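Posting this for the archive.
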Amino acid sequence: MIDLAHRSRVPVSPRRRITSAAALCCVAIILSLIWFIRPEAEPRYNGRSLSEWFLLWEDSAEDGAHESPVRAEEAAQAIRQIGTNSLPLLLNQLRRETSPAHQTLVALSTFLPRSIYQNRFLASLLNRGHLFATTSTFVILGPQASPAVSELNAFMYSTQNLALASSATYCLVAVGDQGLPSLIAALEKPQLPCCRAALSRLAWFGATRHPPLGTNAAAAIPPLARLAASKDPELAVLAIKVLGRMRIEPQIAVPTLTSSLRSSDKATRYAAAGALINYGEASKLVEALADDEESVRATAAHCLRLWAPDAITNRDFVPSGTNSLPVPASGNQSLQIPDVRAQAESQQNSPPRP
């Protein structure tokens, strides 16, 4: 019997070990590249994939290379026909495109010549063959994407991946009513990144849609009002912008915004003034012209000049003092702003009107 324990072993040279290790590394890299760049199946409708319909929509939509409302609507309807069949892919792609590794690759690709990094082939390689924008696809689907709310909600609370949290919040806003409870819950947690993300997304959507949260948007007003009074100026300004763009529940919003006019933060005062104009409350700014705080008076005067010059023309009385401000629209005219404080003092010393 051969004693295997005492068999003479053929020594392996260091060079052979290095060669073997290099070969294994090459095989691993090749397999990884094959897995990475292999196209991933997509749902289809009328012979076209989700990416193909999205590219047609993007090309035909407003500001697209070949703007055509009819073709854009046709493509959007096709994406809605794919509907919930696209959600597993969209959620996977949302995780993938917000991962640190993917974002690093995208950032590195920007150092390539523009003709290369803006090429769709490179985008396809980086996205497993997909050429749709995930968040924009959620916007097109709207309420049809409501079955994804629970997973989007989990993504929104991610504290390790802020890009994922922000994108998931965007998608929840796009879903509409079904995403509202998750967004309201996020607004109640100012200590978490998702609160700031929710405010930022709502402020953006509010500029393009009215109201931004669907038919049950009134439920968001109380937490927004609380955030408008936040000690964090950034949170306060974002909340005020959302309140101003939603223009609902004035019995809560207007007192909140009026109070924000007296904030020590200039940006907060300016945002509050603009929001009050959106609620048709220019009279609150006229009152602010008599405020004891110079910064409040200056903010009110500036905003009235820009947004509501007609609101500061009071026909009920002849003011005892005026300030002349230029009206940008007319160029060569001036607007008389009543000195409310002086007028009030004058009325105290005058007999009442018959």
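Residues 37 and 125 are 5 Å apart (CA to CA). DSSP finds 19 helices and four strands in the chain.
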